[in-house]
Design goal:
Blueprint lengths: L1 E4 L6 H10 L4 E4 L2 H6 L2 E4 L5 H11 L1 H10 L3 E5 L1 H4 L4 E2 L4 E2 L6 E5 L8 E9 L11 E8 L1 E5 L5 E6 L3 E8 L2 E4 L7 H28 L1
Parallel strand pairs: 1-2, 1-3, 3-4, 4-13, 5-7
Antiparallel strand pairs: 5-6, 7-10, 8-9, 8-11, 11-12, 12-13
């Protein structure tokens, strides 16, 4: 079961339907205990990072998210959901969830903001989300970008005024700056890869219990 975290930001119906199309059982929830009991969690989001962090904190979600990540369960942040995974947040001058070291800042360059529409993402290193050198188009809506401390966390990049991460991956923590649920076949492929990893992890967990 995959928990889609409801904190009043993002098109929950679209991401839930995409996960279900990939074969997942989905629950949309604002309850931290439901998130803790899930096999994985997805944090979607649009809007303002500072407000998002405030609402998540009021719901008690940061603690639940931290716990499931420490337990090795998969976590996927989408758009604002990816940005708040990092520490320093320029938007709202807040501290994020701290799941990945780094900061989030505004896009640099002489370009129109927000960065909105289809753009080409290129895989920088092989991960469960794609092989190095693969390129595909995804749908973006944002004005801020993540700047990881460790370049190894960058799984794919996109160019808009500058080059910045479109996908980050560190172990069981994944993030996409674009909206896979709005990105057609390419987005569904990515979501299927996420669900497949969740299923594999759940099977390993069952096997460990049987072995005991």
């Amino acid at each position: 079961m995959i928990a889609v975290i409801d904190y009043g930001a993002g098109n929950l119906r679209s991401i839930s339907r995409a996960l279900e199309a990939a074969g997942a059982e989905v629950v949309v929830t604002s309850d931290p205990d439901v998130v803790r009991s899930a096999d994985a969690a997805v944090l979607p989001g649009v809007g303002h990072a500072g407000h998002s962090i405030q609402v998540l904190t009021e719901l008690g979600m940061p603690e639940a998210i931290s716990e499931i990540v420490k337990d090795g369960k998969l976590f996927l942040g989408i758009c604002i959901g990816m940005q708040v995974m990092f520490e320093e947040q320029e938007e709202g001058d807040n501290h994020g969830l701290g799941l990945l070291p780094g900061r989030v800042r505004s896009i640099r360059g002489d370009v129109k903001l927000p960065h909105m529409g289809w753009n080409k993402s290129r895989v920088a290193r092989t991960s469960p989300l794609g092989d190095e050198g693969e390129e595909d188009y995804f749908y973006f809506v944002h004005s801020f970008v993540a700047e990881p401390n460790d370049p190894a966390d960058i799984a794919a990049t996109v160019d808009y005024g500058e080059r910045f991460p479109s996908v980050v991956v560190r172990d069981n923590v994944w993030g996409t700056q674009f909206h896979p649920e709005k990105s057609g076949a390419a987005g569904l492929k990515l979501i299927r890869a996420f669900v497949a990893q969740v299923n594999q992890a759940a099977k390993r967990g069952v096997a460990d219990l049987v072995a005991r």
